[in-house]
Amino acid sequence: MTRVAIIDPQTATGEAKELLDAVQAGLGMVPNFIRVLANSPAALGAFLGIHGIAGAGVLDPLTRERIALAIAEQNACQYCVSAHTAIGRNVGLDNQEMLDNRAGRSSDAKAAAALGFARALVEHTGQVSTAEFDAVRAAGHSDAEIIEIITHVAMNIFTNLLGKATQVEIDFPKIELNKVA
Hints:
- The chain has helices spanning 14-27, 32-37, 41-55, 61-74, 78-91, 95-102, 109-123, 130-138, 143-166.
- By secondary structure, the chain is mainly α.
- The chain has 2 domains: 15-55, no CATH class; 61-166, AhpD-like.
């Protein structure tokens, strides 16, 4: 059971209502994660802002979802693994690729380098080695892409923390974690 209120978009008021209506218009639904975040319109607005900026960057949607899956599994956030599996399917990832992504692997060499770097960022709390940094660059990632990988890792750590701390109810097809944190 979720530890904080799940805000109903139909009864929300003020800024929370405006933000929830915008999510509904954009996604065609309002996930429970967003409804929990709406307890603080400031936090929801900040999240939607960084999510929008991150989504407009140079990383392709497949790589963004691969990163989300890898970080969600690494941080053992079942809500996020479930959500990003559904989103991953929508952007064109197949089941095997998503299972590989959750383990930090990809059939695409450039994406695999991004996932290795992303997981190293989490594992070392940002203190990646020169070799790890050089590997992502050697795989063909530009400085802009590297900055966006870091941005997506940070954004996904936030969503993982929120999902786990609030125990938000999973409203996507439920996916079991591969490991227990």
